Amino acid sequence: MSRDEKKALLEALLFLESETLDPVRLMRYTGFTEEEFTGLIEELKNDYEIRQGGLQIVEAAGGYQMLAHPRFGLLLSQIYGGKNTNKLSRTSLEVLAIIAYKQPITKSEIEELRGISCERVLKTLLEKDLIGVGGRRSTPGQPLEYGTTKNFLKVFGLDSIKSLPKLRELKELEFETKDTAE
To answer: Over 80: is that where the pLDDT of 117 sits?
Structure first.
């Protein structure tokens, strides 16, 4: 198989798969070596960037996925989406951020940080598969420990939890925003 045919095969696999494909699985399907796969996926990503078409290949949750380009997001959601059921309230985003940065974390630890109950928010985040139960804390009562899921990484376009901005960076951004607002 020529290099162009290999790249076309990789493109077809990404196009047909609705979930993020991890490199190990893609290499198993195709028989490509890691070096060959890395080169082909980078070429394919660059081809899409240069062409500036309606699709892009993104790396998220430890794998790759073909998605519509974000610049068409509003129009595509109007045509196909109707109401966006993936929207999160400010409270949900706050709890999700706490979990993402402090995981593994218990419900009582989240409530201590927020100062109010978060039972309903946790239920919503669990239903949306943005968080999951990672186990039980080995303390009295053995409370559940929460952490983010692979779906969380996918939804937020992160390769790993280490890709989250550092808290220091967020604080610097907050100060810059306040300075420009005055």
So the answer is: yes
**For the purposes of burial, counting CB atoms within 10 Å of the CB of 156, is it exposed (0-12), middle (13-18) or buried (19 or more)?**
middle
Of 61, 6, 5, give the one whose Cα is nearest residue 37. 6
CA–CA separation, 86 and 79 (whole Å): 16
How long a stretch of residues is the chain? 182
Contact, 148 vs 154, CB < 8 A? no
Q: What is the pTM of this model?
A: 0.58
Residue identified by tokens 């969380």 is: 152
Residue 62's nearest CA partner among 92, 120, 23 is 23
Alpha-helical runs (H) found in 17-149: 23-30, 34-51, 73-76, 90-102, 107-114, 119-127
Go through the domains of the chain in sequence order and give each one's CATH number: 3-73 (1.10.10.10), 90-181 (1.10.10.10)
